[in-house]
Amino acid sequence: MSKAYLIARIRVTDPDAYRGYIARTPAAVAEQGGRFLVRAGEFATLEGPAEDRRIVVIEFPSRAALDAFWTGAAYAEAKRFRLGAAEFEAIAVTGVDDTTA
Length: 101
Known about the structure:
Elements: E1 4-12, H1 15-31, E2 35-39, E3 54-60, H2 63-71, H3 73-82, E4 86-94
């Protein structure tokens, strides 16, 4: 089974409100077996337009787990604090199947 990754680019527009999202998201991620690989750390644009948004990468054990996180009640609660507090783009990517490598 391949792991799946949620990759988000975020521009925070209301830091006070966004703190509520940051406080609730880790539990929602953990509920589905996910873990943060990147959470707005230091970065540099190597090619293309300069990036100035927060970058977040979350690993899940499967695409089903990622989808359960995204549509689950725990994330819906966290998301209420993000809406109106940030511009948010997210994609889901399935990783390489490490059982065939």
